[in-house]
Amino acid sequence: MSVSAQIGFLVVLALLAANLPFANQRIFLVGPQRSSKPLHWRLAELVVLYFVVGGIGLALENHSGQIAPQGWEFYAVTGTMFVTLAFPGFVYRYLMHRKH
Known about the structure:
single chain; mainly alpha; elongated
């Protein structure tokens, strides 16, 4: 897989993973179906999925060559980007008013 394909795959994966906590009512996809999952569980899932996607990105980088060292700036920027990617799911879950 080329480096551009790896980057595209990682961006699509991050977009899906960032919106996953807002798309379902199960805790970590394995818990029981709930009528409404609290926001703190959604945020915990978001943090865990950030590290999962980061681990996949690290594995892809290791596969293509040497891993570049990252400082706190890297994690601040990627964390902010991950939260930004989660915005559509948050809007769908909490800000769109649906008729019951």
